[in-house]
Write a structure and sequence with these properties.
single chain, alpha+beta, 23% helix, Peptidase C39 domain-containing protein, ATP binding, peptidase activity
């Protein structure tokens, strides 16, 4: 089963040079239907040596200093936002359900 939130966290963990397997990130966490939830994300991030905080922001309110960030999308999907081009109204993202390549949307 694909877990876009877990895959996004694993991507950010690798981005920062941490070699954490997805299984290690969720070890001993009370998953819901086998999936990482936004509520559990901070605990999983701690296992990777990272900090996570859930907040609701629009893309124009994100500071470039925060990137990369995990965006939780409508419908429960998630992606990693690497940067925002305000002039073009586009975001550079990694969609974990794809091949993991960076793309502009």
């Amino acid at each position: 089963m694909k877990d876009p939130l877990l895959q996004s966290l694993a991507y950010i963990s690798r981005f920062y040079g941490q070699a954490n397997s997805p299984d290690a990130l969720i070890a001993d966490l009370p998953l819901t239907d086998g999936l990482l939830t936004p509520f559990l994300l901070p605990r999983a991030a701690e296992k990777a040596g990272l900090q996570a905080k859930q907040t609701q922001l629009t893309f124009d309110k994100l500071s470039p200093l925060l990137f990369p960030v995990i965006a939780i999308l409508k419908g429960g999907d998630a992606c990693v936002v690497l940067s925002i081009d305000q002039e073009k109204g586009e975001a550079e993202v990694v969609l974990p359900q794809s091949d993991g390549s960076e793309q502009w949307i």
